[in-house]
Write a structure and sequence with these properties.
mainly alpha; globular; 10 helices; 0% strand
């Protein structure tokens, strides 16, 4: 299906933001990459900040809905956690440009993140918090720090997704396992490790 002018602008901007960050991206670059004139860009978006926020807000809302739907399908608490993690794998598989953008924001202290995105981060983390508390109440998981568990999931997934080119280069010089996993594959590895570590009967 042929992309609309707005879709072309958003895709071009997302690619440039992923490679160069917010500060390294210009409206001229976006216009050239999208083959749209600047007047068209400003018709849809007030400025670069508005465009950046639009991309992040739409992606994070998509992330949140996918996580909620995956978790709500399950009744067993361990399966809820697995689906929470696996949903992140699916998110990064279908939105591979978002990982480098988020990593840049983390490294920069979230300087360009609007409050709405921070709220989305909070809402997604609270889904995990409810899973962990439910598991602790049932005696399935031991007590843990929700944000630490969240960083183990999202940090690993983000970093794995953002290092695709580097991992490909590493495959040429080492036979270490785990360099070429799919998003679903890395999600399974993370899930099995975290779930085992959280088990109430592990040290």
């Amino acid at each position: 299906m042929k992309k609309t002018t707005k879709e072309k602008i958003v895709l071009a901007a997302e690619q440039i933001f992923a490679k160069q960050g917010f500060d390294g991206c210009s409206m001229n670059q976006i216009a050239k990459a999208s083959k749209a004139n600047k007047a068209s860009i400003y018709y849809y978006f007030q400025d670069k900040k508005t465009l950046y926020e639009y991309i992040l807000e739409s992606k994070m809302e998509e992330f949140k809905l996918r996580v909620e739907e995956a978790v709500n399908r399950e009744k067993i608490v361990e399966e809820k956690l697995f689906e929470y993690i696996f949903a992140f794998g699916e998110n990064f598989a279908s939105n591979d440009l978002i990982a480098p953008i988020i990593l840049r924001e983390w490294a920069g202290g979230g300087e360009n993140l609007p409050l709405t995105i921070k709220e989305k981060f909070k809402e997604i983390t609270e889904i995990l918090d409810s899973i962990l508390k439910e598991a602790q109440k049932e005696g399935v998981f031991k007590k843990s720090k929700t944000f630490v568990v969240h960083l183990m999931i999202v940090g690993t997934m983000n970093l794995y997704s953002a290092t695709k080119d580097l991992r490909s280069q590493m495959e040429e010089i080492t036979d270490l396992e785990g360099l070429n996993l799919s998003a679903g594959g890395i999600a399974r590895e993370i899930a099995s490790t975290i779930i085992y570590g959280l088990k109430a009967d592990t040290i």
